[in-house]
Specification:
The protein is α+β, with helices and mostly antiparallel strands and 432 residues long. It has 15 helices and 16 strands. Flavin-adenine dinucleotide is lined by residues 31, 66-74, 77-78, 89, 109, 131-133, 137-138, 140-142, 144-145, 147-150, 198-199, 203-204, 307, 389-390, 393, 426, 429.
Amino acid sequence: VGDLERALASVVGAAQVLVDDDVRSGYEVDWTGRFRGRTPAVVRPGSADEVAGVLAVCRSLGAAVVPQGGNTGLVGGGVPLAGEVVLSLRRLATVGPVDRLAAQVTAGAGATLEAVSSAAAPCGLDVGVDLAARGSATIGGMVATNAGGLRHLRHGAMRSAVAGIEAVLADGSVVSHLGGLAKDNTGYDLAGLLCGSEGTLGVVTAVRLRLVPRLGDDLTTALVGFSSVDDALVAMRAAGVLEAAEVMFPSGLALLGTPPVSAPVVVLFEWAGSSPGVPDLPGVLDAAVATSSSQRAALWWWREAHTEAVNRLGPPPHKLDVTLPLGGLSGFVASVPSLVPPGATVVVWGHLADGNLHVNVVGPPPDDDSVDDAVLRAVAAAGGSISAEHGIGTAKKRWLALGRSEAEIAAFRAVKRALDPDGLLNPNVLLP
Ligand code: FAD
Ligand code: MLT
Ligand code: ZN
């Protein structure tokens, strides 16, 4: 550790190499508390060149590296499970001037989503991806996980927002392509490759982001009750152009209190401008409609508070973020209780339009992955994906083959070997 610490300090300065137990501990455990490990040091570079210097030191000393942003990831991909050095990107937090004509901005990897959104606001612009962890999740982490979130039905995942990228590869080279040109067919799409690469192919240091028109306050938000998921889907198709369609169930809502709408299935719909008459949608049992921003925030709270409410139950949750074909969503939801061990608490919610359910199971110990196995196999058998938006991380790498063929995984390994032949970058995630 002494040599490593001294060598890292020669790159970033001693103050940016954290080795005290109590300082390191926050970087050693994931947001859910399910995944934890140990690191010899947390290193906090302040520039892309310093990132390159850190990687050179780690390579020469044979120390593997886990990149970490806001540490809000939910698959244990950003924590040092096998003694890796934690490379924290949070100091790369600069947000550049907003280019109003291009509707783009360049942000450091460590800038939070909230910081970039605030910088875009005076220009009437916003980041198209939004999620409840906006105050802590970083742009680099969101690119690395290809985050989806609450506006995916309208603007897609992070990959759609990336117009260019700067990253440091394992050999210390800096690849920078931040021009943000609308058309640019000059070979391989390295930015696209890094989206969803979970810190295994390169360290993202800056991102050129495409922005979208900011919605402002002219929105209508409603919590709408239905008797079944299928009824909710039929209403969603009748609801016109939606800005959000988020699904919840009584078990999750009950963790938060007495919701304004009570029904077997509750959906938060949001429209720009005014809504089509909510009561006229097919199958509606009950509804609460909000137009002022404070009323809207109150309805969104019921949705966004789910994640923290599950963490407050106590034992770390098993978080199974999956996609089902929309036609199979209803049947899958009905089957979930049969997949969970007796006595466990199960809470489900998700992004309805994407067929993306968050199946949260509380009860089984962190390292007992039998419920993960049962749920992920059922998802694969139903034609779904074992990771909708959180990634594979360490939590799901055992099951990668449920969603990817042997040939695909071999191609993944070839890409990994080409860009990181020594296995320096996040060697314990994604690939089984
Ligand atoms: P971290 O957790 O620090 O890291 C995540 C992964 O990215 C790790 O594998 C890490 O090694 C890698 N990484 C981080 N930074 C870099 C970098 N600069 N270069 C290379 N690799 C890097 N996710 C969704 O998709 N949709 C949601 O709606 C959503 N809602 C959430 C709500 C809450 C309350 C919480 C706690 C989480 C939520 N998440 C959601 C998960 C999480 O916020 C996202 O995965 C987010 O993209 C992680 O960003 P981060 O900066 O915290 O990354
Ligand atoms: C969400 O949509 O709430 C997030 O993806 C976080 C979670 O699954 O807990
Ligand atoms: Zn989600």
